[in-house]
Specification:
GO molecular function: protein-disulfide reductase activity
Keywords: Disulfide bond, Redox-active center
Oligomer: single chain
Helix content: 25-40%
Organism: Chitinibacter bivalviorum
InterPro entries: Thio2_N, Thioredoxin-like_sf, Thioredoxin_CS, Thioredoxin_domain
Strand content: 25-35%
Strand order of the largest sheet: 3-5-4-6-7
Number of helices: 4
Protein name: Thioredoxin TrxC
Largest sheet: 5 strands, mixed
Distance between the termini: 29 Å
CATH topology: Glutaredoxin
CATH superfamily: Glutaredoxin
Structural class: alpha/beta
Shape: globular
CATH architecture: 3-Layer(aba) Sandwich
């Protein structure tokens, strides 16, 4: 299955075969690393493929555009994605647009963060964190 991934650098849309996720793919337009520097927006179609093929740990931020704490935490999540590129893949799921994913992962409040490795949930946290708290939480998985 192919995924549609926005380049975090030039914002060009890139079609990428899911089986190539671990090959450090580059953007077809600007040639910068495609999976480094910004969170990936996931859908009910793309998330299973990401989790199935990716070997990196994955942290998922379940959020919604109307959620104040989600909006407040967004820049912290994006900054960590840039700082930890290549070590952890950062994924965002808009629960307003993708309610099935929220139900599938039993998300009861937002923001909720899930850490997954090899498609298995390691830990979840509900509620926004400060930058320091979030980085400390992430470091336990490296």
């Amino acid at each position: 299955m192919s995924l549609l991934i926005d380049c975090p650098h030039c914002h060009a849309k890139n079609r990428l075969e899911a089986t190539r996720l671990n090959e450090a793919p580059n953007c077809g337009a600007c040639h910068a690393p495609l999976l480094a520097g910004a969170p990936i927006a996931a859908t009910k179609e793309s998330l299973p493929e990401l989790l199935k093929h990716l070997k990196l740990p994955v942290v998922i931020d379940f959020w919604a555009p109307w959620c104040g704490p989600c909006q407040q935490f967004g820049p912290t999540f994006a900054a960590a994605a840039k700082d930890m590129a290549g070590k952890i893949l950062f994924v965002k799921v808009d629960t307003e647009a993708e309610p099935e994913l929220g139900n599938q992962f039993r998300v009861r409040s937002i923001p909720t963060l899930l850490m997954l490795e090899q498609n298995m949930e390691l830990e979840r946290v509900s509620g926004a964190m400060s930058s320091g708290q979030f980085k400390a939480w992430l470091m336990q998985f490296l």
